[in-house]
C-alpha cells in the first residue's frame, strides 16, 4: 500500500468516480497490490525471512508499506518500511 505521504493518483481518480456515481461519503481511496504466498513448513526464522523478502523484493520501501498476514489471523502485522534507527552515543571531549 502506498505510504500516507505519497500521492496516489489512481486512488484519487477512483474516489472522484465513486463520488460522481452516487457515493459522496467516500473520503479517500488508496490503491495497492495484494499477494497470496503459500508456504510449506514451519521453520523457526520463516517469519523474519518473509519480512526481509517483502521489504527487499516485493515492495518499494521508499513509497510503500506492507502487511504480512498469516492465514486465519484477524489482525495483519503491519510493518512500516522505515530504516532502522541508529543508536545514539555521546562521546566526551578530551581537553
Structure description:
- With 95 residues, the chain is mainly alpha-helical.
- It folds into 2 domains: 32 residues, no CATH class; 47 residues, no CATH class.
- The chain is 26% helix and 6% strand.
- A hairpin with an 8-residue loop joins strand 1 and strand 2.
Features of the shown structure:
95 residues, mainly alpha, 2 domains, two-stranded antiparallel ribbon, 2 helices, 2 strands, elongated, disordered C terminus
What best-fitting shape do the alpha-carbon axes yield?
A: elongated
Structural domain count: 2
Major beta-sheet overview:
2 strands, antiparallel
Give the H and E element order: HHEE
Strand content: 5-15%
Number of helices: 2
What structural category do the secondary elements indicate? mainly alpha
Please report the total strand number as a whole number.
2
- What is the share of helical residues? 25-40%
Low-confidence stretches: 82-95
- Overall average pLDDT: 80
Radius of gyration: 20 Å
If strands are numbered along the chain, what order do they take across the biggest sheet?
1-2
Distance between the termini: 52 Å
Quick rundown:
It is built from two helices and two strands; from the N terminus they run ααββ. It has 95 residues and is mainly alpha-helical.
List the helices and strands and how they pair.
Blueprint lengths: L8 H12 L25 H13 L7 E3 L8 E3 L16
